[in-house]
Every structure is written in structure tokens, then in C-alpha cells.
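Standup notes
- DV: blocked on the single-chain target, sequence here:
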Amino acid sequence: MPVHCSLNSAFVFHSPRYTNHLERENKSCVAQFFLLGLSDYPELQLVLFALFLSMYLVAVLGNLLIILAASSDSHLHTPMYFFLSNLSFVDICFTSTTVPKMLVNIQTQHKDISYSECLAQVHFFMIFAGMDNFLLTIMAYERFVAICHPLNYMVIMNPRLCSLLVLMSWIIIFWGALLNLLLVMHLTFTRGTEIPHFFCNLPPLLQVASSDTRINNIVLYIATALLGVFPVTGILLSYSKIVSSLMKMSSSASKSKAFSTCGSHLCMVSLYYGTSLVEYLSFTFTHSSQESMIASVMYTVVTPMLNPFIYSLRNKDVKGALGRLLSRAGSFP
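- DV (later): unblocked, structure below
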């Protein structure tokens, strides 16, 4: 692993061999990076700070209410709301990985982030983004079982299977993120490296590395296929079966009720994967950091903030549970 600290050359012999070694070490001697952020205009900083602080607080509070409602109300002790609670928890962690540091940098007018903080941000961002992928896929499978196999729903989606699906997702994502992190730790960066983003994400970090990133890019593409393409394929297959099953239903009321239970999930899938795809394409083909940052804002801040509203506004059970939760909270002196 390269040394990421300043070198004191006052007490060493400057042979040509040492000078070459020192030059190589200086490239890996990075104490911090500089995040370019969303805007350089000073007059916009206060507006950005207020906007993102508001969205962050709404996202955390809204998802926390979903978790509390699902855990405290016996009507929501079902597989669907078990996965929704996990999604809300991941969304809280997801947005907390990037937004607080951005708010600190805006408030202090500093753009620096330490080397260790940057790697930690990359690692946790990959974990929580991957978990979002897996949970959305699992929730699509849960809807498929509920609509296509309603009589066997509780047998198939038993508590053991639900817990196992979530646990296996965490394990797979953790080791995948760890592999990418170990590869990044072997890269070198020049002093004063600027990252064209408002947080440390793997693609822009690889873009500014001064050493060979071919292995990193190969692993990243494989991870994107495994953690992106396969989940999307699973979601599409689940919904193709759901649509086929709905077409066979004779009652229009049954069709409407069955499809309404999928509406919230489809909204989340569209928001998350749509903005993720825009970021991926903008970096892969156009290398446009501005478009990438806008897409990143959507799925790191806006989507977690909208998640509680989408599920609560379209779901009578969640609205009822939230009402009972708030009434109980208001009854305390």
C-alpha cells in the first residue's frame, strides 16, 4: 500500500536512485483531495446550503418515520414492509454518506476532503448504492409472489427467507465494495488533485488518478454488470410476470388493486435507475461532470427524500400507521 503522507527529505542522502524513488513517492503522497462541488459562485452557496440541508432533514426524518411506523404497527409486520423498512434505513445511510460533508464544505467555504475520508466515502457509497439495487430487486420479487402466487405468499415469503435475502445482499455488497476499495488504495494521485464532483465517487476518482487504472475499470465494469444489470433484469422479469398475470384477471377492480400495490415501487425504480443511468452514460461517453453531478443529486438526495412520500401518499396502510404513530407521540405530555 502506498504511503499517503508528507516526506521529510532533510535527513536523507539524495542519490539519483533515491531521487527517483522520492518522485514516485510524492505522487502517492496525498493528504487530501479537493471536491469542486456544485457551483463556484459565492452568491449561490447560501442557497445551496439551505436547499440541501432541508432535503437532507426531510429525507432522514421521512425515512425514520417509515421505519418507526413499520416496526410499531402490527398491521405492517409483513414481508413488503420489512423490505421497505430496510430500504428506508439504507436511504438514510446513503444520503448521510455524501450530504453532511458537502454541507460542511459549503458552510466553511473549503473544498478539501482527506484521503481517508474520501476512501471511506467511496466504500460506503458503493455499499449503500448496491443495497438500494438489491432491495429494489427483492421488492419486485415480493410483488411478483404476492400477485402471481397469492395463496402461497406467506409460505414462500417466510421470515427466514426474507432475512436471508437481506443478509446475503449485505454480504455480497460488502465484499464487492471492499475489493474495489483495495484496488483504489494502490492507485497514486498527484498533490492538489481535484475531483470534479461534490463527493468522492469511484468513476471520477479513477478519472483523476495518475497511475494505471485498467484493472480498476475492468472490476468496476464487472461490478456494474453484477450489481446493476442483473438486478434490473430481475425487476423486468418480475414485472413481466406480473403484467401477464394481471392480463388474465377478469375483474377490473382486482387488476386496479393489484397494480396499485406496484405503483410506489415502480416510481422508486424509475427514479433510481433513471438517474443512475444518466450518470453512468454521462461519465462513460461524454465525460460531462456537470450532467453527472445533477444525476447524482437526484439519486443521492432527491430519491431518498421522495421515498417516504411515494410510499405514504399511495398506501393507505402506511398512512394509517403514520397517523397512529403521530397520535401516540402527540398524546405524550
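- Follow-up: Residues 214-248 form the longest helix (35 residues).
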